[in-house]
UniProtKB/TrEMBL annotation:
It comes from Secundilactobacillus kimchicus JCM 15530. Belongs to the ATPase B chain family. Residues 70-97 are annotated as: Disordered. One of its GO terms (cellular component) is proton-transporting ATP synthase complex. This is ATP synthase subunit b. The chain crosses the membrane at residues 16-35. GO terms for molecular function: proton-transporting ATP synthase activity, rotational mechanism; proton-transporting ATPase activity, rotational mechanism. Residues 74-96 have a biased composition (Polar residues). F(1)F(0) ATP synthase produces ATP from ADP in the presence of a proton or sodium gradient. F-type ATPases consist of two structural domains, F(1) containing the extramembraneous catalytic core and F(0) containing the membrane proton channel, linked together by a central stalk and a peripheral stalk. During catalysis, ATP synthesis in the catalytic domain of F(1) is coupled via a rotary mechanism of the central stalk subunits to proton translocation. Component of the F(0) channel, it forms part of the peripheral stalk, linking F(1) to F(0). Keywords: ATP synthesis, Cell membrane, CF(0), Hydrogen ion transport, Ion transport, Membrane, Transmembrane, Transmembrane helix, Transport. Pfam families: ATP-synt_B (PF00430). InterPro entries: ATP_synth_B-like_membr_sf (IPR028987), ATP_synth_b/b'su_bac/chlpt (IPR002146), ATP_synth_F0_bsu_bac (IPR005864), ATP_synthase_B_chain (IPR050059).
């Protein structure tokens, strides 16, 4: 029945059916033996590429995190170093001020002690001079008058004379 049908190219319908069945059978064989392994291989490759991209992204994020941590640590160490230097400067300034204050106090104490010593020596010198002058005056007066004056009279005379000398030195 199909024998009378022919195609313009000279092919018979039976041949066409045979070719169609052979083509479908070939497609099925390719699908079973070649298409599935190729598809599996392509899926595995796509998964590997996806995993590699995810791993690379994760590594990049970790690297950025580590870089940020290092920058923060560096900033913190710079800040710590700056605070240590400032603290050392403040302590040095405080020690310097303390040493200067102690030195000034010591100088003032030494100056006061020296002034006290000078005043004491002055008083001692005046007392010695007063005693020496009194003794000399008594001796001179006794030689001049040829008699002994009483010690109290002589002391009063000498004290008034020394006060007059002290007033001359002060002015």
């Amino acid at each position: 029945m199909f024998s009378h049908l022919t195609v313009a190219a000279g092919l018979m319908v039976g041949d066409m059916v045979f070719y169609a069945i052979a083509f479908v059978l070939l497609l099925w064989l390719i699908g079973v033996f070649a298409w599935k392994p190729v598809n599996e291989m392509l899926e595995k490759r796509a998964d590997k590429i996806s995993n590699d991209i995810d791993s690379a992204e994760k590594s990049r994020l970790e690297a950025e995190s580590l870089a940020k941590q290092r920058q923060d640590a560096l900033a913190n160490s710079r800040q710590e170093a700056s605070s240590i230097v400032d603290s050392a400067k403040k302590q040095g300034q405080q020690q310097r001020d303390g040493i200067l204050a102690d030195a000034q106090t010591e100088v003032l104490t030494l100056k006061q002690n020296a002034q006290k010593d000078i005043e004491q020596q002055r008083q001692d010198a005046l007392l010695n001079a007063r005693n020496d002058v009194a003794d000399l005056s008594i001796e001179i007066a006794s030689k001049i008058i040829q008699k002994e004056l009483s010690a109290n009279d002589q002391k009063a005379l000498i004290d008034s004379y020394i006060e007059g000398l002290g007033k001359q030195h002060e002015s």
